[in-house]
Model the fold of this input.
Amino acid sequence: MASWLRGCLVLFVLLAVGGEGLANVVREYPLEKKVHLSDTVVIGRVVSVGQEPGASPAEFAHVQVDKVLKGPALDSVDVLTKGSISEMDLDCCEVGKVYLFFLLKTQKKIFMSVNGRFGVYPLPTR
Done:
């Protein structure tokens, strides 16, 4: 009887806290959802990376826009690459490299990926 009760208790604990390990996982959206949720979709080359002077420890990539696929015409965008939510940090942006960006516009004229690291794709350069 004690063994059965112990087994039930272990099962209850696993069910109660087992999902917390995946609570902050960013799942990849289908392409259609990324496009739908994006304010802007662009292909662009990273010109520089760094922090905004006097700002929090957030990091940004300044991107020269080569082609706008969705949204208003833009010459350049500043993209948040590392912020306060580590699961939304990007696995990009090397200076000189070209990427496809699915972006949301924030209140401060800064853009962020619509799907964390799944919202930015490196493209081959010629």
